[in-house]
Amino acid sequence: MRKRISKTCPICGRDFTFRSSGEANNKKRVYCSNTCAGKYRSSLPGRMELFEATIGPKRGTGKMPEHNYKNSEHMKRNWADPAYRACVLPSYQGKTFLSRGGNGQPTKPQLILADLTGLPMEYPIPTASVRDRFISLPHCYKVDLADPDAKLAIEVDGRTHDQPKWKFLDQRKTEVLNALGWTVVRFKNEEVLANPDAVVLEIEKLRKSKE
Questions:
Q1: Same domain? 109 vs 169
Q2: What pTM did the predictor assign?
Q3: Of 47, 63, 95, 200, which has the fewest beta carbons less than 10 angstroms from its beta carbon?
């Protein structure tokens, strides 16, 4: 017969009891209810910023932008196809939108800089050593180009990076990489396309300053 365990909720201060189902469960059960557990999660650093970056600070308007309706219908049609789900679902497992890093495939500005500097593209940087300092970290962050010896990460950003969600992601990615000892420098696509030599010169200066 399972014994009853008594604890005090650290959020509301209420005493509560539950039936034990093993030592591991005893340690897991900390709060008296899902409501108190939710209050704790909401208090974690970065939670409100994450919420506003994803949902937005204003809610309840009851109106969705036209392009969102189109995207929604497009996604419904895709997910109704079993072949599409079987192909896509494995890539989503264990990931959140916070896991984003790298473009998946090189962009033209990225290829230009890689050709001029000789630096590797889509370079993975493991995050294991700082996982206890940030929530929902991926196993690694990929950067557009990198100088591993100088610990210099170079990101080439398109116009989507001006959106609030991606600004939040970029800032978080920079904070994580800084905590790992990397310096992050960002350039706009337009900068690279208009004057790649000037961008390369700035990169070389940064590389030399870190020698």
A1: yes
A2: 0.55
A3: 63
* Segments of 49-167 assigned E as strands: 121-126, 140-147, 152-157
CA separation (Å) from 101 to 25, 123, 176, 207, 210?
Answer: 35, 10, 12, 22, 24
Q: Does a structural domain hold residue 193?
A: yes
Same domain, 140 and 116: yes
List beta partners, residue 17: 6
Q: Is residue 169 part of a domain?
A: yes
Say yes or no: 120 and 193 in one domain: yes
- Pair (196, 101) in one structural domain: yes
Where residue 61 falls among pLDDT bands split at 50, 70, 90?
Answer: very low
What per-residue confidence (pLDDT) applies to 64? 45
Contact assessment for residue 156 and residue 127, using Cβ atoms and an 8 Å cutoff: no
Phi, psi (degrees; rounded to nearest 5) at 113: -65, -40
Say if residues 175 and 182 touch (Cβ distance below 8 Å). no
| CATH classification of the domain holding 168 | 3.40.960.10
In the Cβ-directed half-sphere of 112, how many Cα atoms lie within 13 Å?
19
User: What is the spatial distance between Cα 88 and Cα 86, in angstroms, rounded to a whole number?
Assistant: 6
Beta bridge partners of 19: 4
49 lies in a domain? no
Range of the domain at 22: 4-43
